[in-house]
Design brief:
- Strand 5 and strand 6 form a beta hairpin.
- A 6-stranded mixed sheet has the order 5-6-8-7-9-20. Strands 11, 13, 14, 16 and 17 form a 5-stranded antiparallel sheet that branches.
- The longest helix has 22 residues.
- Helix content is about 35%, strand content about 25%.
- By secondary structure, the protein is an alpha+beta fold.
């Protein structure tokens, strides 16, 4: 099966076979994908990527974050395509990997074609995009674009106490500071990704065109009470921080449902001492909130502080909140967004403009490049799950839009 995209020939079978080959690395049929950043599985996938890149004679370099940067062509400016091969624990086969493998296929197509390119075409596999092994997320692109400095990133430790710097050194992918993307920014950056939400699938659309990525803020919160015996302590005299937590969790949910401008999640909860027959002394938890507008996150933070303190007064508790990290949102370049939209229209694809509620390396790249993203449907909106699924035809549509967008930007 060969689809003609004049003057370039697209080979969907080769693309899908390459995708399936990568999908086997780290896949457990019962538990999902286990390809944490710089783990053995991630390193195996990276080495396969490099093997294929060398077969098309791409030049390959690594930067301070261990990002893989491959290039073809000789233009003074570059059009970059990027995403990530690492996964969350028990994740799916599509998140991140689709964008890298589609970018690899674009480089492979163009290296075999007779089209004379005005730009270098760049592929980037970003390190630790997910933030599942080391926090914060988007570490590789953050270091390379100047959001973070190397001393901070290298000092981050995983749950086993291994620092990012130690793991990067052992991996063989540690590169030079001069290769950081902030020192040689591409003119354009494109990222193909699954939507990770239900909108495209439920609306029968084939392509989503993000206007940008929402801002993310994360907080660590704690309710403190009094630890005591589960049987002998009367209910009316208890200072139970778990009750305070449950009240605040419900109020946060009601706030987000009512406002619609914020999506809020309590992702981790830990109690101390954490045994069945003891009233907890402390409940520690995280809050993740996201919005296209920072002012809505400001309002949400004020709400959490006021409600947390009010609940603490009601239950005779103490409440503290600490900002953990901020990932700034980004608005994408209108010229790039419009180019993607024109490509979708010319290819006869059903599409819409939308927001990305998930973080992507594109938001860091927007600091140094003109950025656009391409979404393809996630069936039933499943992502970060072994049930994550995108149809072959939707992946091929994403590749077609990506390739044609690269060609049109190259002609500008």
């Amino acid at each position: 099966m060969v689809i003609k995209l004049s003057p370039i020939r697209l080979d969907p079978d080769r693309f899908l076979e390459t995708f399936r080959m990568f999908s086997q690395i780290g896949w457990d049929g019962d538990r999902g994908m286990y390809r944490l950043s710089l783990s053995d599985n991630d390193l195996k996938a990276r080495r396969l990527l490099i093997e294929i890149l060398r077969s098309i004679e791409a030049s390959i370099s690594y930067d301070e974050a261990g990002n893989i940067i491959a290039e073809i062509g000789r233009g003074s400016d570059a059009i970059a395509i990027g995403s990530h091969l690492d996964s969350v624990p028990g994740g799916g086969r599509y998140d991140g990997a689709l964008g890298v493998i589609a970018g690899l296929e674009v480089l492979r197509i163009l290296s075999l074609s007779l089209v004379k390119l005005r730009h270098r075409i760049m592929l980037i596999d970003f390190t630790n995009e997910e933030g599942s092994r080391w926090t914060p997320s988007l570490m590789g692109s953050g270091l390379s674009t100047g959001v973070y400095d190397a001393s901070y990133i290298y000092s981050r430790r995983d749950r086993d106490g291994i620092s990012f710097g130690e793991a990067l050194e052992r991996s063989g992918f540690k590169g030079q500071k001069e290769n950081n993307l902030v020192n040689r920014p591409p003119k354009y950056y494109l990222e193909l990704h699954i939507e990770q939400g239900p909108e495209l699938d439920s609306e029968g659309l084939q392509i989503g065109i993000p206007l940008g990525i929402v801002s993310i803020r994360s907080w660590e919160c704690i309710f403190r009470g009094e630890s005591n015996h589960a049987g002998t302590t009367p209910m009316e005299t208890r200072r139970d921080p778990l009750i305070g937590f449950s009240k605040l969790a419900q109020r946060i949910r009601e706030y987000a449902l009512r406002r619609r401008s914020v999506r809020a999640t309590i992702g981790r909860v830990e109690t101390y001492p954490g045994v069945y027959n003891v009233i907890p002394e402390e409940v520690w938890f995280t809050i993740d909130a996201r919005s296209p507008e920072d002012r809505y996150l400001d309002d949400f933070e004020r709400f959490v502080i006021s409600q947390g303190q009010a609940i603490a007064n009601e239950e005779d508790l103490e409440f503290d909140l600490r900002l953990s990290f901020i990932v700034k949102g980004a608005r994408f370049d209108e010229e790039v967004v419009s180019t993607i939209e024109n490509v979708c229209r010319d290819l006869g694809l059903r599409y819409k403009r939308m927001w990305s509620w998930a973080g992507h390396d594109a938001q860091n790249m927007a600091r140094i490049s003109r950025v656009g993203m391409i979404f393809v449907p996630s069936i039933r909106g499943k992502s970060h799950s072994k049930d994550e699924f995108t149809r072959d035809e939707d992946m091929i549509n994403g590749l077609r839009v990506l390739l044609e967008t690269v060609l049109r930007l190259d002609r500008r």
